[in-house]
Amino acid sequence: MTASDGPHTMSPGMPPVCGYEVRAEFDHFVLRDDFVTDLAGNTSHPLLQFQPQVTINPKGQLELHLTVAGPDVWTSLLTAMTVIRQSGYAPIAVHVRDNPEPTTSYVQAPGNDSN
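RE: above sequence
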């Protein structure tokens, strides 16, 4: 079996993967109002395609939560980091976990069950 024999990641009729939830933490110099103002003032902001949610964690640090559809954790993480860095903010930590809700038409590679 060659790589071309396997299902294409965008094949119609294949079940969707759920994607990933990405949580980026920022230092105390990044304020909630900075993100809210940036997102509200630009309806074509790249972060908006990832359902952003801005929260403050118990340490008083801003956290940005994104839902990123992707074929694997690494692609989703790199996509999120690219969009976050393009926004001008540098996170101090990034966490990724499976998203239980389908978000895309990508399919998971056979034998790569992360549950």
